[in-house]
Amino acid sequence: MAALGxxxxxxxxxxxxxxxxxxxxxxxxxxxxxxxxxxxWYSRTSSVGGAIAANSYSSALVFNDxxxxxxxxxxxxxxxxxxxxxxxxxxxxxxxAAAGRELTYVFGGIVLxxxxxxxxxxxxxxxxxxxxxxxxxxxxxxxxxxVLDAQTGELFLDLRFNSASFVDGDIxxxxxxxxxxxxxxxxxxxFDPRALTYTGDANFNPSGRYSGGGNGSSLxxxxxxxxxxxxxxxxxxxxxGLAFIRRR
Length: 248
What we know:
248 residues, alpha+beta, eight-stranded antiparallel β-barrel, two-stranded antiparallel sheet, disordered N terminus, disordered C terminus
């Protein structure tokens, strides 16, 4: 039984065709480390509610227009920050996805405030275990179709923001650190606690509409889902009974 329990705890975990080894040697006390690239943009099209609108990417605003409006105040409008990306490594492994699968990442619901801060009270993030056909998301995002593809597949993790803040820079060139809670997804049951910490960097060209060089990482702790202790005890009794039967 001791050997059975040890094997269960050390086994790789798979959800929706995505596999990771929680005993990653370089993870230290953390057993889920994902790294990703992303593209983000500002739009007047709302991304509150858990999805990026179909025309959000193509209606992205020139960053300098957004920044100038924010600096001048007065006519300041509502600007939403959203983005799409792809996870390229989990626990040091780039081959974590099953053949024909990809793990994409989208976020939205972030509202730019007149003082230059970002309101995360309605922010969300989602990871999708999708397929590379008929559309294969590639970084950086380049069309509404790719952004839609990044939101297609099995919902791997559904995330909400507990907190987020700039640890360096500002809305045009900065690093954000965030605490996320996991509220659903096929992989949610493997996380204990159901939380991730997030760090992301992105830079806007003043005359550009997209920040295509964003990158970051998310960290969490996972465990194999194993039977309750009572179930394990019954399993042990069953194995003992089998041994007694064989001895007769």
